[in-house]
Amino acid sequence: MRHGPLIAKLATVADLHEADVESLVALCDDERIVPARENIVSEGERPEHVHVILEGWAARYKILANGSRQIVAFLIPGDFCDLHVAILGHMDHGIVALTRCRVAYIPSGALDALTADRNGLTKALWWATLVDEGVLREWILNVGRRDAIERIAHLLCEMHARMALVGLVQDDQLALPLTQDQLADATGLTAVHVNRTLQRLRGMNLIETGSGMLTILNVRALRETAGFNGNYLHIDRRVAVPR
Q1: Could you tell me which residues come within 8 angstroms of residue 27 by beta carbon, excluding any fewer than 6 positions away?
Q2: How confident is the model over 213-227, as pLDDT tens digits?
Q3: How does pLDDT run along the chain (243 residues), one tens digit per residue?
Q4: CA–CA separation, 133 vs 102, rounded Å?
Q5: SS3 sequence of the chain
Q6: Distance (Å, rounded) from C-alpha 122 to C-alpha 75?
Q7: Is 89 exposed, middle or buried (0-12, 13-18, 19+ CB in 10 A)?
Q8: For residues 209 and 178, what is the distance between their CA atoms, to the nearest angstrom?
Q9: C-alpha dist (Å) from residue 44 to 66, 73, 94
Q10: Under the phi-then-psi rule, with left for phi > 0, alpha for psi from -120 to 50, and beta for the rest, what region is 162?
Q11: CB 24 within 8 A of CB 138
């Protein structure tokens, strides 16, 4: 089901009514393909739609005056790109498709109308926004205080946890369609340093990589190496919704 990751993500924290699910799926009927390396939303744009990743990987990013790029989040199936941007009026960063993406375009007004009288769905969407903020804080810590092996290991642990949440991990194997340049842009390292760090993690028998896939051979050991505590993802938070 193409909306499976989105519903799985929100259902983790709220007991959504069947009508909530049906209404949200109906809002996602405007699906568009965005090719790899094309912007889904550009910095400075005033988007009229809320964008949801249904398939593929995307990234939030900022470009410096010298042309260098900092990736500040990876977006995977089930993630909203810009849930509350209509409140601010314009994008202060860009969102680019890293792979071919299938994206739902939801009119901002329609989403506002849907959540106006649906308490459970509203809480689930706010949870998604607050988790995005938690991820951003963790990424700041990652770049500012962790060493190279901790940075890469922590990022891999995070993606494993987030992909598992939406049912995209099997036997601790998941898609990781990222280049070393993209990992470098996300971790504040050079591509050469990323390459060496991945080699170290493979040499420690913690991971295997190849063909755009990641296999975590020892989840506990990788988390210990990273100092990973997934509390910032708030996966165990559930919101009871009156029937």
Answers
A1: 104, 106, 107, 110, 111, 114
A2: 999 999 999 999 999
A3: 577 999 999 888 878 888 888 988 999 999 999 999 999 999 999 888 999 999 999 999 999 999 999 999 999 999 999 887 767 778 889 999 999 999 999 998 888 888 777 878 888 888 888 899 999 999 999 999 999 999 999 999 999 999 999 999 999 999 999 999 999 999 999 999 999 999 999 999 999 999 999 999 999 999 999 999 999 998 875 544 333
A4: 24
A5: CCCHHHHHHHHCCECCCHHHHHHHHHHCCCEEEECCCCEEECCCCCCCEEEEEEECCEEEEEECCCCCEEEEEEECCCCECCCCHHHHCCCCCEEEECCCEEEEEEEHHHHHHHHHCCHHHHHHHHHHHHHHHHHHHHHHHHHHHCCHHHHHHHHHHHHHHHHHHCCCCECCEEECCCCHHHHHHHHCCCHHHHHHHHHHHHHCCCEEEECCEEEECCHHHHHHHHCCCHHHHCCCCCECCCC
A6: 21
A7: exposed
A8: 11
A9: 18, 18, 8
A10: alpha
A11: no
For 144, the token pair is: 């500012």
